[in-house]
Amino acid sequence: MCLPLVDGANGSRGPNMTLLWIAAATLSAAVLSSAACSDRPGASSEAPSSSARSLNGALTWPEADAADDGPWVMAAKNYRSTRYSGLDEINLQNVSRLRVAWTFSTGVVAGHEAAPLVIGSTMYLVSPFPNLVFALDLSQPGAPMKWRYDPRPLSAAKGVACCDAVNRGAAYWNNLIIFNTLDNRTIALDAATGVPRWETPLGDISLGESMTMAPLVVKEKVLVGNSGGEFGVRGWLAGLDAATGRLLWRAYSTGPDSDVLIGPSFRPFYPSDRGKDLGVSTWPADAWKIGGGGAWGWLSYDPQLNLVYYGTANPGPWNPDQRPGDNKWTSGVFARNPDTGEAHWFYQWSPHDLFDHDGVNENILLELNASGTTRPVLVRPERNGYMYVLDRRTGEVLSATPFAHITSSHGVDLTTGRLIVNPQKTPVRGRVVRDICPSAPGAKDWQPASFSPRTGWLYVPHNNLCMDFESVDVSYIAGTPYVGANVVYRPGPGGHQGNLTAWDPVAARAVWSINERYPAWSGTVATAGDLVFYGTMEGWFKAVNARTGEIVWQFKTGSGIIGQPVSYRGPDGHQYIAVFSGVGGWPGAVVVNDLDTRDATAAAGWGLTMAPLQRETRRGGTLYVFTVEGS
Amino acid sequence: MDGRVVQSVLSPAAAEAAHIAWLYWLMFGVTSAVFVAVIGAVALALWRSHGARDVDRARSDQRMTVAVAVASAATVLILAVLLGASIVTGRAVQPADADNMVTIRLTGYQWWWDVEYDAVVPADRIRTANELHLPEGRTARLLLDSGDVIHSFWPPNLAGKIDLIPGRRNVLHLTPTRRGLFRAQCAEFCGVQHAHMAMDITVESVDEFAAWLTRQRSAPPAPTTSVAQQGRAIVEKGACALCHRVAGTAAGGRTGPDLSHVASRRTIGAGTLPNDRASLAAWIDNPHEFKPGNRMPPSTLAPDDRDAVVAYLETLQ
Amino acid sequence: MARPIGLITSLACTGAVCLVTFSCEREARRFPAPGQVGPRVEAVRLTSLSAGGSRPTGRERSPFQENAYGISEGKRLFSAFNCNGCHANGGGGIGPALMDAAWIYGHGPDQIFTSIVQGRPDGMPSFAERLTDEQVWQLVAYIQSLSAQTTRDAAAGRTDDLAPMPPDLRLERLSPRQTGHR
């Protein structure tokens, strides 16, 4: 871990809660502090990256609409996906007195990735399969259960959940709690009673489909997508009427333009994304029908532009030889009109993805102020190892800077927007290609980053992993995995597998970074108390000084943490931090399913690196809620 | 099976094979001449040995020295000529980029050939098995690979043999100069059915080739008769789909040959049986009767179901 | 001197006969033929507890239990039918590990056979009518070889391109138990 360096300019800006906008470090400060920081993960990249560039100006977050920081109404906190809480009752001064207020066991022992929601005086939880939903009454001591709902998903659905039967949370709209079940149903429950209001079946497990993502409600529409890039599904994002559950539109990630909802308003920035039916012609015949590209990650929304942003997952199978071509529209990001689903632009992070680099990570929407003008941008810590800054009106790449060790590519060509792949690391059938960094789980997987307007930095939980990759032929057999690769992950340079990195997107550099032994697979939350919370797979829940990276408090929970921490104000007026403890997810499957780690390829490659975790933590499923003692 | 199929080094139908045939004839001619000369010399020696009784030893030794020197020099010269010719031929058959090449990925499996034609637009790529169609006058670039053990691709009329090695890609260029139907054969022992690992190569005009590509690119028409429809359902829902692919259906296996246009092929079982109704039915019932030890299991289909499958396969033109 | 030579000769002959006899099954190469392959699997019990007291288990064995070619075919089919997508190279992933001692639905060859054919409710798809009995028995033999339950000298060749685990021949022989859970 590098020693943090806070420059005076940043410190003096201080919190200004009324305006809620804070400038980021200037370029000169960036040079100073980067010189002091010798352990920047980005600095270790071998590949010269022409696209790594700092930006002029400062990031801002002009809205005051998040003024009410009491509730936590969506997994990403707000449409900008900042996961920033304006509450500062828990702060650097009193964090050492943070104690468990109460806990709640879901009774399910699998990977708990969900974000709890807090609306009014009620907390809503979704468990992993069997996707139980709980409402807890926060106004009562110990938060007793108000109601519980069991959607009774098909147990066979667990056989098509690639990476543990997780669920990433629910959404709230107009007294409805809306969530997805693993067996492809979107269900809306009455938030007061837990009685189902509507239920919409959207997919078929016999085709390998499952649903694990947290829905987003935009303009009375529920946006949901499917998972299953490892099962030869055809990915889609659907818009449902939030009041009735009626399917309004479904935009596929592959296939003819009419299915992808590409029409006259589609104006991608780069010429390679223009043309008719690229979702068919960039695939071998029929391969687009089983080409993956699910939408199991995060959605963001810009009300001004009326565009929703979401990433599409990896193409299937992993073996790239079986799908020559750019494999549109997988491993990219779409901007769509949420009313009609129409695509406005698309940018592909990894054309013809070679390494299972799903493009589903969160898109954090910020404003870049430069010489008096404001440019709306989208900041994306991408699985391929680059921190992208895109103009979110057009999809133009403004910068793409490595934030992890990368050997698989040499940067991003800012003229064509295309990732420059390293031919030496390109998989060849029947040959083991070694030391590919980042690995298949990427420099950063689903685990969402947060953004603090007080520092102007992103707090990115991510991986430090390389892999050996052998692609092999694979048959498409509906309902069975469609992968075609033998992989083994190994820790990257430094020997640790995870990091929590504070990233300055304007200066395009890491400010500080904390090494974690295992992948940092939990989300993060940043608060106005200048704290960042995250959990580790061993089970430690940690509070970090947002400016220095110093760990100021930690607590060992019952199981490994892969959940998304949230911050809310309880009915008693005090701030609470809540997080699920329940190891699992893709790497945690080694623990959840008690895999035999003598096989290094167990859990699609985690057998080697996750073997010690079996002796450090066990399955669990408990919500921990923390508050400052005596409050 | 078919009298018109040719498999011979001496009947070259491609520029590369013509070079090899030229080398063959050169070597045959030179070595024949040497053979005749040697036999002649032996005969002469036998005949002369009866006549010459009084020998001037010194003169004889001198003559012998000259003879040995001349013979050695001639041998070296002849070998040098053959070496030079080999080098010239070797260079002539080296892969060299040409305009407008047809790129084909050829993968050997026990005991069949997977064939994939490259295309600029990925959607225009086609897959077939155990057959090659090549346009006359255009260079074909073959990328050779193996899915299991070492095989060797040998189309005597068109090119020399080249190995297919797991994990290593070899390249073979050939430029057909004459239309016709030719046969290729695996030339490296690869298991019990090595002998039944053949392939048809059709060299046709550029227009015929383009028409063939177009047919292969389109998904086969949906079956119209009820029996063929029933056959399709069995293929999709039964055992076939786990190993075989049929374009436009749920059958997506890659373990066995692609069946999308199987009815347009001349043989089944990689040159083992003619592609007709009776052979198909017999093959499906028990492939091991014709190709013992191959990897397709005997079917458990009832005769009616098997006939339906055959009826469906016959629609896959 | 005749007697020692005779003794040596007869010993050598006996040795040769033994060698041939015991290596026969390992080397046997039977070509598939239509009809029944392996034992008929009926009334498989998924539990060792029987009402009315214990009954003899009578577990059927895979006909390829000691056959090198059958086990290596099982290994090929294991990836051809995407078993490795969930069970990796034996260590498991989406599905449970197959090289360890803990078995949810039983480790007997007939129990493994029925698990493949019938599927299991926690995500194992059914392969009924998709595979022939012979293929399933080959898979059973290979799966058993992963925990060294088959004849060791017939185990499949090592996967040595990625070398994900110790060679099959060096795997520890475990005592499998039906645990009923992961």
What are the main properties of this structure?
heterotrimer, A: 631 residues, mainly beta, 7 helices, 33% strand, B: 317 residues, alpha+beta, five-stranded mixed sheet, 12 strands, 38% helix, elongated
Write a brief caption for the model.
With 317 residues, chain B is an alpha+beta fold.
Describe the structure.
The complex is a heterotrimer of chains A (631), B (317) and C (182). Chain A is mainly β and 631 residues long. Helices cover 6% and strands 33% of the residues of chain A. Chain A has a five-stranded antiparallel beta sheet, with no helix packed on it. In chain A, strands 2-33-34-35-36 form a five-stranded mixed beta sheet, with no helix packed on it. Chain A has a four-stranded antiparallel beta sheet with strand order 3-39-38-37, with no helix packed on it. Chain B is an alpha+beta fold. Helices cover 38% and strands 19% of the residues of chain B. In chain B, the strands form three sheets. In chain B, strands 3-2-1-5-8 form a five-stranded mixed beta sheet. In chain B, a hairpin with a 4-residue loop joins strand 11 (267-268) and strand 12. The longest helix of chain B is centred in the first third of the chain and has 37 residues, at 15-51. The radius of gyration of chain B is 27 Å and the shape is elongated. The two termini of chain B are 21 Å apart. The model of chain B has no long low-confidence stretch (mean pLDDT 92). Chain C has 182 residues and is mostly helical. Helix content of chain C is 37%, strand content 2%. Chain C has helices at residues 2-27, 68-80, 83-87, 109-118, 133-146, and strands at residues 102-103, 177-178. In chain C, helix 2 (68-80) packs across helix 5 (133-146) and helix 4 crosses helix 5. The model of chain C has no long low-confidence stretch (mean pLDDT 84).
Q: What secondary-structure arrangement, pairings included, does this model have?
A:
The complex is a heterotrimer of chains A (631), B (317) and C (182).
Chain A: H1 8-13, H2 27-36, E1 58-60, E2 84-85, E3 98-105, E4 117-119, E5 122-126, E6 133-137, E7 145-149, E8 171-173, E9 176-180, E10 185-190, E11 196-201, E12 216-218, E13 221-225, E14 236-241, E15 247-252, H3 257-260, H4 278-281, E16 299-302, E17 307-311, E18 332-336, E19 343-348, E20 364-370, E21 373-381, E22 386-391, E23 396-402, E24 409-412, E25 419-421, E26 432-436, E27 450-452, E28 457-463, E29 465-471, E30 485-491, E31 498-504, E32 509-516, E33 524-527, E34 531-535, E35 540-545, E36 551-556, E37 566-569, E38 575-581, H5 585-592, H6 602-605, H7 607-610, E39 622-628
Parallel strand pairs in A: 2-33
Antiparallel strand pairs in A: 1-20, 3-39, 4-5, 5-6, 6-7, 8-9, 9-10, 10-11, 12-13, 13-14, 14-15, 16-17, 17-18, 18-19, 20-21, 21-22, 22-23, 24-25, 26-29, 27-28, 28-31, 29-30, 31-32, 33-34, 34-35, 35-36, 37-38, 38-39
Chain B: H1 15-51, H2 57-92, E1 102-109, E2 112-117, E3 126-129, E4 131-135, E5 140-146, E6 151-154, E7 162-164, E8 170-174, E9 180-186, E10 198-204, H3 206-217, H4 226-237, E11 267-268, E12 273-274, H5 277-285, H6 303-315
Parallel strand pairs in B: 1-5, 4-10
Antiparallel strand pairs in B: 1-2, 2-3, 5-8, 6-7, 6-9, 9-10, 11-12
Chain C: H1 2-27, H2 68-80, H3 83-87, E1 102-103, H4 109-118, H5 133-146, E2 177-178
Parallel strand pairs in C: 1-2
Helix pairs in contact in C: 2-5, 4-5
